[in-house]
């Protein structure tokens, strides 16, 4: 299996940026579109465990749309072959001084584009 085929890696980096833009702008329609609509899709968040697309979509549509800005660092996208990839990043929010966020996503290419099939978000104390 080839790792980080340049064209595939670029595709996932682009969709990851699309996701990030949608996240900080609370573009729920785009966020919903980028998650696989299936009961097997899972998102562990900072304060919630969401099983299935319906729970994820419900969470997205009811969360606050304020203070979503954040700064990313150490983003790593790795493509495995042509249809599977992971994206990992650290993030910082001005509203959470002394904290560092961690986000990981598993992306799979579907007939209608790249979709997140699993995600994890957590926040810990910044040890740097």
């Amino acid at each position: 299996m080839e790792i980080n085929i340049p064209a595939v890696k670029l595709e996932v980096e682009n969709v990851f940026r699309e996701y990030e833009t949608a996240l900080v702008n609370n573009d729920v329609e785009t966020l919903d579109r980028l998650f696989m609509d299936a009961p097997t899709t899972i998102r562990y968040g900072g304060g919630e465990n969401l099983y299935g697309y319906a729970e994820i979509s419900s969470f997205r549509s009811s969360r606050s749309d304020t203070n979503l800005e954040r700064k990313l660092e150490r983003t790593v996208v790795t493509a495995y072959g042509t249809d599977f990839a992971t994206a990992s990043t650290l993030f910082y929010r001005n509203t959470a001084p002394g904290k560092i966020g961690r986000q990981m996503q598993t992306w799979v290419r579907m007939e209608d584009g790249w979709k997140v099939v699993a995600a994890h978000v957590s926040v810990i104390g910044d040890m740097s």
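The longest strand covers residues 113-125. The chain has a mean pLDDT of 95.
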